[in-house]
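I am still getting used to backbone structure tokens and would like to learn alongside you. To get us started, please write out a protein record for me. Start from the sequence, derive the backbone structure tokens from it, and show both lines together. Once you have written the record down, we can walk along the chain together:
***
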Amino acid sequence: MGDRGLYRRVAIKPDALDPSALVAEVARPDSGATVLFLGTARDHSPGKEGVTHLDYEIYHEFVEAKLGEVLDAAFEQWSVLSAVVEHRVGRVEIGEASVAVAVSSAHRNDAFSAARFVIDSLKESAPIWKRENWPGGSVWVEGA
């Protein structure tokens, strides 16, 4: 099998996320499982209907470092071979992905567990701010 090394990448970007490219990026011949999580903008939130779009602001340097730490922890806890996290900044339309986590491992349990850990940790600890917009108003909301 040889030593292919582990792979990880974090990106903060204004452009649309490409799920197919992320899956291809974490693909490896020694991987038996790939998990892709997409967090998408929805048209409602608790007590609010008619959300038209979201705006994200991020403290770039800190978020990239924090996400790197989260990926390091995932690699330590599970048998992860490759992992990529991308998060949008700026305007995100309803139905578009604002965050993506792609993880590959030899076995599905590790891939599922690591991907869930990464997205949950991101939501809990990364300084990412979201504003929900609707006709006639907007509000900044905290993560989950």
